[in-house]
Amino acid sequence: MSDRYLDFANTGVGGWLTGALGLPRPAPLKRRADAGAGLTGPLLLGPGGDSRLTPVLTRLAAENGREVQTEWSPDVRYGGLVFDASACVDALSAQALYRFFHQAVRSVAEHGRILVIGLPPETMADAEGEAIQRGLEGFVRSLAKEARRSIGVHLVYVEPGAEAAAETTLSFLLSPRSAYVSGQPILVSTPVTEAMDETEHAGRRVLVTGGSRGIGEAIVRLFVAEGARVTALDVPGAQQALASLSAELGVDVLTLDITAPDAIPALLADARAKGGYDVVIHNAGVTRDRTLARMEPREWDSVIAVNLTAPLAMTQALVEGGEMRRNGRIIAVSSLSGIAGNMGQTNYALSKAGWIGAVRRLAPRLASQGITVNAVAPGFIETQMTAAIPFAIREAGRRMNSMGQGGHPVDVAETIAWMADARSGGVNGQVVRVCGQSLLGA
Amino acid sequence: MSDRYLDFANTGVGGWLTGALGLPRPAPLKRRADAGAGLTGPLLLGPGGDSRLTPVLTRLAAENGREVQTEWSPDVRYGGLVFDASACVDALSAQALYRFFHQAVRSVAEHGRILVIGLPPETMADAEGEAIQRGLEGFVRSLAKEARRSIGVHLVYVEPGAEAAAETTLSFLLSPRSAYVSGQPILVSTPVTEAMDETEHAGRRVLVTGGSRGIGEAIVRLFVAEGARVTALDVPGAQQALASLSAELGVDVLTLDITAPDAIPALLADARAKGGYDVVIHNAGVTRDRTLARMEPREWDSVIAVNLTAPLAMTQALVEGGEMRRNGRIIAVSSLSGIAGNMGQTNYALSKAGWIGAVRRLAPRLASQGITVNAVAPGFIETQMTAAIPFAIREAGRRMNSMGQGGHPVDVAETIAWMADARSGGVNGQVVRVCGQSLLGA
């Protein structure tokens, strides 16, 4: 689970050696728990501070003890650069995008952030406008590959009128919580519920499947720390791990094989006893990797049942049974394999790509009930599972991304927590990669 | 422009050496012009031959002197496997997908093809159906990575009622014309015009921008060979190359800087003189690679003008001027960089991602005029441009795909010719990568 190369490359001797040999020297990312994490300088807002997001950004900067500046200065190290490209409707107006970043891009501090704000391309008046706004994605993905390895670069399409709803998204992307997310386009649309004066997670009922270890455990720990009332669900075989989590954190546990015939009644009974769930996180997943010619029927079936059909049936039962509360959140853990495919994972990739389809279907349908549906797609995350991968393949997986390292389970948990936030009603139908901008894709 | 490693690895000594050293040994792909190209065995159609595409596939097989079989036999080497997954609406029915390929996948001949037919996910009755149909994409992309390096694997979503319109697409994918395309999902929808008894390209008026060399020249040559009446457009600096193409092939030439102030009137005058165009291929493109901090304003501007805004303006002028004929085709050359972003290409990636937005906008709007709008996104194609890339980077680009080699300009031209086919009215709004299933993406 430890990345010894990263550790070594950041020692004195290791730094000298990697430099002399021309080897990559990834910078350790700063997460929420790390010393010195957070905005390390002011936000520079372009063009000329003229943005519909100015009120939100000013508030966010102030919460971080920073200010928003609108004139670039060569003497300042900025914690973040934010460019509102909403006025880029043709090639001429898009020159402002070039001018701003051409000048400012080298002024971002280590661990800083770069954000481009756009309008949903399909809302533009003509083909050139749609092309430029859609083109921002190519721009941002390229800039994310050019930026230093600790700097995340993002594109946020904010629907007209959804500016206030963008606060949790901008806050997440400008914070160390998004350390391992980069190069992602994210849409913020009109929230599914009226903005309520709610705290992020405190007191919310959260169900985490596969919650006993790995990414699931990280999710449980994060939501507990945020004051949520968490139920960790896992299979009977994980009972001991669940019990010690419960003893340590005081979480509820639910021992259940979600593919069992009586899983749905048991889940509903539990949900009913708790007065329903605010947040359901479908994290439980299995792999049974084998090329298709060698794959056993049960390897095919179990992966699809655990990863796709059981959580879909759970979702349906909870929603139709009235056990998803208003302003609810359903979040699935998809995968880079579901996007790009992967050798030996026809079953897994089908199940994980399947969730992309399920999100697309469920998000607009459940919006009327005030529920959002989203997914995260992790790339290479350092867990017991990846620790078992042979060295050379593991090294390739770790280094083939813009951060030059694997992510941590907490990076996935932080991304889920942003989507789950009670104030994130404008984040709906999104599939966001947590992969350090892995080179892999489709 | 030659891939010496590929050539060497396929000699006797080279084959022994690469085997002994565990190096990749990519197979030379078979294109239309190569001896022995084409279906080398029968088509196996699953499940049990029960498919709405049976009539089309039977006709295609017969044209290739092959038959369609519906029962797998261990003794047959199939030229192609086709599985109609239209009945896969839940996990249970999707087991048929596993059973078919588990048994048959090793029976595909070298240079064979694997096709999965699906229904557009959003047309399914429920979330599980949409998830399974969308999940096919993960399945197909994984299988494409497992298949031998000469075998293309594809997913074709055929809208109900558009089965007859799928003929050109299935024909392309089952033929050597698609040698360097793999792992792509393609939608065939209701054609934009009534199916007409037209030949593919003969007699059609085709404009190819950037037509004097590289990919553009390959496009010109292919359309000329197909009997189209081609106009090759290029900048004044390419006049000599244009003249010799004209002398050799008898094509019309149009010497024009498409970004010049008088470009549109000149284009319209030419189009009017020819009675309008059936097919316009926006291939002209430039790169001015530099990290954003070092990029000059003119490097930003020229890339966006040549690659995006000039061809958009040309499209608008031709359509509004009535110079695009009914059953017309507009095809842009996008790029893998527009999908994934690329270091040093913020300008280029914006322009190429921009075309993805333009296709999305224009395809539904021009459908009512009987015109389709599509794009190809080439990956690593062996040209003078790629020959100039430093060796190590070039090698990485060449090998990091399921075919283990770079594509040829003709591979891009063939993909464009399929989209441009007068009978391809059901192919609209598509962006298809020509990249040998490059690992790179987003």
TrEMBL record, chains A, B:
Give the EC number(s) under which this enzyme is classified.
1.1.1.100
Keywords in alphabetical order = Oxidoreductase
Q: Does the keyword Oxidoreductase apply?
A: yes
Which InterPro entries does the UniProt entry name for this protein? Answer: KR_dom, NAD(P)-bd_dom_sf, SDR_fam
Source superkingdom:
Bacteria
GO MF annotation terms? 3-oxoacyl-[acyl-carrier-protein] reductase (NADPH) activity
The record places domain Ketoreductase at 204-384
The record lists the membrane-crossing segments as none
Q: Which family is it part of?
A: Belongs to the short-chain dehydrogenases/reductases (SDR) family.
Q: Know the name of this protein?
A: 3-oxoacyl-[acyl-carrier protein] reductase
Record the organism: Brevundimonas faecalis
